[in-house]
Write a structure and sequence with these properties.
Radius of gyration: 23 Å
Distance between the termini: 68 Å
Number of strands: 10
CATH class of the largest domain: Alpha Beta
Helix content: 40-55%
Shape: globular
Number of helices: 15
Strand content: 5-15%
Largest sheet: 6 strands, mixed
Number of domains: 2
CATH topology of the largest domain: Rossmann fold
Low-confidence stretches: none
CATH superfamily of the largest domain: HUPs
């Protein structure tokens, strides 16, 4: 067994990333990281008791390259005796329709496609090939975008149905594995496209920081993320602990709770500001809304000083009504934008 395979077996076992005797979907682009992940997991099928499904997602952006990539991943899966699925999505159309960056839209559709395949095969988890280098880039990207503590804690080795076995593995180790095993791989030309912020961070900003400031900047960024992740775990536990205190009791109807949440303003106001922001973030997530930082701050301010009868208009028809003792989050006309007031002007709330 190769040293990398042995390391990943230890990580998967130690962190209980997999339970064994299960199906696992593996996202494979044809690049070095995902190809190495596919081969490592294939080598560990017996000790981990796994069934693997290799999935190639074509984002519809590089028609000159994707046919070869899909064929390569298909052949790799066949050589390893694995199931294979090809999924095509329309990233450009989704970006235009949803008002997203092309990179963001492609990521959303990619994970949606992987989850669809996982459901088809009854797979509980999806393995993706993010590396230690990706973690450093991600932390820096989130810092540039103004992320809070949770964002700067970086990616998790396990996040709901996603597992990242390579998250502590440096790229040079992966390339060495491929060379040792004489495994070929492809290069995605979009990884060199300077239009994408991630590529500018990878090819321009990080090398500049390494040359001019600290050769160990990648390690420092990962260390910071790990430290913040521990703090984040504590804050998450504290948020969960005060949730039942500040959220008014509902009637037990889960369907209703997914479209309406009521917050006690007085009890909310007693919480530290950090927990107030996290509580609002959790409410927005529960209601299927994007938890934008500016929206979180608006809701916190409304809870503290909002005028009774006023309201906030958030995304996709979500309204926050300010009452004397409560904030009411709801979709009064469904999850679609609409104009008009939630409460009658001057109404007794």
């Amino acid at each position: 067994m190769h040293a990398l395979e042995r390391d990943i077996l230890g990580i998967v076992t130690r962190d209980e990333l997999l339970t064994g005797h299960e199906r696992l979907v593996v996202g494979v682009s044809g690049g070095p990281d995902s190809v190495a992940l596919l081969h490592v997991l294939a080598a560990l099928r017996a000790p981990l008791d796994l069934g693997l499904v290799a999935v190639y997602v074509d984002h519809g952006l590089r028609p000159a390259e994707t046919p070869d990539e899909g064929a390569y991943v298909k052949q790799s899966a066949a050589d390893l005796g694995l199931d294979y699925e090809y999924v095509r999505v329309a990233a450009a159309e989704h970006a235009a329709r949803a008002g997203l960056s092309l990179e963001h839209a492609a990521r959303e559709l990619r994970y949606e496609a992987l989850r669809t395949v996982a459901r088809q095969y009854g797979a509980a988890c999806i393995a993706v090939a993010h590396t230690a280098d990706d973690q450093a880039e991600e932390v820096l990207l989130r810092l540039i975008r103004g992320s809070g503590r949770k964002g700067l804690a970086g990616m998790r080795r396990r996040s709901r149905d996603l597992i990242r076995p390579f998250l502590e593995t440096e790229k040079k180790v992966i390339l060495s594995y491929l060379q040792d095993k004489n495994i070929s791989y492809l290069q995605d030309s979009s990884n060199l496209d300077p239009r994408f912020l991630r590529n500018r961070v990878r090819h321009e900003l990080l090398p500049f920081l390494e040359r001019r400031f600290d050769p160990g900047i990648r390690r420092s960024l990962r260390k910071t993320a790990a430290s913040l992740a521990e703090d984040e775990a504590l804050l998450a536990a504290l948020t969960d602990a005060c949730w039942d205190e500040v959220i008014a009791a509902d009637d037990g109807n889960e369907e209703a709770a997914a479209s309406r949440i009521v917050l006690d303003r007085k009890l909310f106001g007693r919480q530290p500001p950090a927990l107030q922001r996290r509580l609002v973030e959790k409410i927005l997530w529960r209601l299927g809304s994007r938890a934008r930082y500016e929206h979180i701050l608006l809701v916190v301010e409304a809870a503290r000083q909002g005028r009774t009868g006023s309201e906030l208009h958030l995304s996709r028809g979500l309204r926050v009504g300010v009452r004397r003792e409560l904030l009411e989050f709801s979709y009064p006309r469904g999850r679609v934008p609409w104009r008009g007031r939630l409460y009658a002007e001057g109404g007794d709330q």
